[in-house]
Amino acid sequence: MARNRTAAAAVVVVVVVAAAAALAGGGRPTDPPEVDPSVLFLDEFEDGGLTVGDSPPGLWDGLDAVAGTDAGVSTAAARSGARGLRVWDFADLPAQGTTAAPYVDLGSDAGDRYARAWVRAVPTWDAGVFVTIQLLAGARAACDISLIFPPGTVVLAGDTANQGYQVTGTGFLLRNSWHLLECGLVDAGTSSVSRVLWIDAVERARQQISQDGWRVDELDVGEPWSDDGQFQGTVDVDGVAVTVTPPPSHAQVDAGPLDLQAGQCAPISARLMSSSKVPAGALRADRLFIAVDGGSAATFTDPDCADAGAFLDISPGTVDLAFGIQALAPSVLTVSLESTDLVGAPIDVNVVSPADAGLPDAGTDAGADGGEGGGDGGSEPGGDGGGEPGDGGQVGPLLDLSVCGCGSSGAPAGWLALAIIGLRGLARGSRRRRRGQAQAVFCTGAAAAPASEAR
Ligand SMILES: [Ca+2]
Ligand SMILES: [Ca+2]
Questions:
Q1: SS3 of 122, please?
Q2: Where are the alpha helices (DSSP H) in 111-207?
Q3: Has residue 7 got a pLDDT over 80?
Q4: How would residue 93 be classed by pLDDT, with cut points 50, 70 and 90?
Q5: Cα(239) to centroid of ligand 1, in Å?
Q6: Which of 45, 320, 350, 356 maximizes the CB count within 10 A of its CB?
Q7: Distances from the Cα of 301 to the Cα of 13, 27, 242, 268, 311, angstroms
Q8: Which ligand is nearest to the CA of 128?
């Protein structure tokens, strides 16, 4: 079902969300909640409503749902705060099309777009191929992040102006736990768009495509398109945002190049970074916990160690932070800033006794590269009940599915493997939800999924 487009829909929708107070443990704010200026849309589902017609009203324009499926705000689906979006699908409907998905208008301005959401899919029937995050440009799928069961791998896909519907696999398994899925359309609307998929702050697939003249105008999440209707289970979504610049995905911590001295205050700096490795302002207010493992240490909310504390409350737009730690004994500490909305990125920090200070640094480099080591195994402060960001993960080599009727020769073994486990479905047709006609061309480009990221 298509939403009705009105004149008002032509206006860029800048939606704000009342997540800040709830996340900080308070009630609804009395002032309008704030988000970073880069935000076109953001929903943490904390107000309880899903669509504008709900009471209390939600932020989404509407909800598509076929018989046997539903979607709504649920405490069981919270990743951050107290609520998230849960899609229930207990229907084995052998049909293509939209299954259950809220949708929202994004306006029609030109420019780059980044969609991100925490997603947890728990199948009760291990089958099905469906899109879970979709950016639309009119009737075209500008970016699809899709899941293939069995066994639950993530693929990047979408329409192009002249090369059909391209699909690039990752080999990454969700494993019933939360993961941060992000799609970026860089140089959007041109003949040379980079369509990029990041999972838990690591680039997993990239396509170089033409979407000349396209303008992203809608976001759908949940099960906006299913190839076969076979998936059954729940899909939880939280922390949904669409931005015009890369959003932050992790806090890169820097303890400096030297060993720390036990008993001394050590100033620590941190910077919110995007998955594309550029500084990025917080999309909304958040609480970042100072996490120290591997030894005893006191934590402080300032770099001079004047104010003891375990967390930093930040405002929208915050990029740089500083705090302090005081290790009590020589050790190797693991230090990070943690939030339920960010991927953990811990670094190792070497702590020596004061008597050893001044000797050549034989310890761990805790410098700028340290922040890239995380993403797998970050502990979760806040007790949200969610899974660990690194619980799932990649199994085996990344699969470059850059297949095409377009002259790819010697299809890699990965392609054959993924073809067996499910890409049959993706070959069937378009994600053109609103028009639904079969698409004649199925062709994936020769994009190279970046092989191995350091983290
Ligand atoms: Ca939430
Ligand atoms: Ca189904």
A1: strand
A2: none
A3: no
A4: confident
A5: 6
A6: 45
A7: 36, 24, 31, 10, 7
A8: 2
The number of the ligand nearest the C-alpha atom of 90 reads 2
Q: Which ligand is nearest to the CA of 125?
A: 2
Which amino acid is located at 243 in the chain? T
Beta-carbon contacts of 155 under 8 Å, excluding residues fewer than 6 positions away, are 145, 146, 147, 148, 167, 168, 169, 170, 205, 401, 418, 423, 426
User: What is the 291 CA–ligand 1 centroid distance (Å)?
Assistant: 22
**CA separation (Å) from 196 to 158, 181, 373?**
11, 11, 21
CA 139 to ligand 2 centroid distance, Å: 23
- State yes or no: cis peptide before 246, omega within 30 of 0: no
pTM recorded for the entire structure: 0.78
What span, in angstroms and rounded, lies between the C-alpha atoms of 428 and 444?
A: 13
Taking the centre of ligand 2 as the mean of its atom positions, its distance from the CA of residue 164, in whole angstroms, is 26
Of 395, 103, 102, 37, nearest in space to 247 by CA: 37
Q: Measured in angstroms, how far is the CA atom of residue 158 from the centroid of ligand 1?
A: 28
Whole-number Å distance, alpha carbon 173 to ligand 2 midpoint, is 20
Kindly report the number of other CB atoms within 10 A of residue 9's CB atom: 17
Farthest CA pair distance, the chain: 74
pLDDT in tens, 102-161: 999 999 999 999 999 999 999 998 899 999 999 999 999 999 999 999 999 999 999 999
46: left (phi over 0), alpha (psi -120 to 50) or beta: alpha
The rounded Å distance from CA 94 to ligand 2 centre is 8
Element (DSSP H or E) covering residue 19? helix 19-23
> Quick check: 223 and 101 in contact, CB under 8 A?
yes
Query: Which ligand sits nearest to residue 231's alpha carbon?
Result: 2
> What is the tens place of the pLDDT at every residue in 193-217?
999 999 999 999 999 999 999 999 9
Residue 374 Cα to ligand 1 midpoint, Å, equals: 23
Q: How far is the CA of 341 from the centre of ligand 1 (A)?
A: 9
Instruction: Write down the H helix ranges in 340-442.
Output: 413-418, 424-426
CA of 75 to the centre of ligand 1 (A): 8
* pLDDT score, position 8: 30
341: left (phi over 0), alpha (psi -120 to 50) or beta: alpha
The pLDDT value recorded for residue 92 is 87
Tokens found for residue 233: 């289970």
